[in-house]
Amino acid sequence: MFEKDPRTFSPEYKNLSPEQKAMVKLEITLTQFFKEFNRSVSRWERMVYPALIIFGLLGLSGFYLIYHVTKDMHVMSTAIDPEMESNMGLMAKNIDTLARNIDTMTRQVTLLVGNIQNMDQNIQTMNRSIASMDHGIGQINVSFNRINRSIDTMTASVNGIRKNVDNMDKSVQAMSGNVMQMNQSMKAMTVNTGVMTHDMRQMGRPMDMLNTFMPW
């Protein structure tokens, strides 16, 4: 780049100091840079200006089309429903109300989720309590089994007592029969004793009479 510049071949350049040569080279570089920049700017000007004009025309045509489409939509909506604008306003209000209701529902759903989480915690607590109750019920069942075994033992003992009482009843009945027989025997003995006493009295009178006559 520097070899093509004629200033580097001049005798004055050869007599310059290194700092001056560096300044000359910087000047040459900046000169070439500005030349290339001017060339590129002129090239871009030839491309950019027509592009700007084309984009401007496209923008104007787009706005024109949007205007006519909007006008046609207005005419079409008026032809379909003359009150479409008011209905659209009501629809917008309803959509706004719906959005607020959805926001309220979202908050309520959030609260519901929190309540469900609390319910989950309560259910876990209930499960632990039920597990404790199951353990307690198991211990109660063991105690009831022991009580049932004790009751069975008591029932067997009561049955034995009943058998013994039945045997005692039979013995008492037998004793009652024996006592009745003894009473009858005593009555018979009493009667016999009375008869013997009467007989002794009957025999005593003749004996008294004999005793009066007999010498003994």
From TrEMBL:
Keyword annotations: Membrane, Transmembrane, Transmembrane helix
Coiled-coil ranges per UniProt: none
Membrane-crossing residue ranges in chain numbering: 47-67
InterPro entries membership: T_SNARE_dom
Gene3D superfamilies: Methyl-accepting chemotaxis protein (1.10.287.950)
Highest taxon of source: Bacteria
Keyword Nucleotide-binding: no
Keyword Repeat attributed: no
Residue ranges constituting the T-SNARE coiled-coil homology domain according to the UniProt record: 120-182
Record family assignment: Belongs to the methyl-accepting chemotaxis (MCP) protein family.
Official protein name in the record: t-SNARE coiled-coil homology domain-containing protein
Protein source organism: Sedimenticola thiotaurini
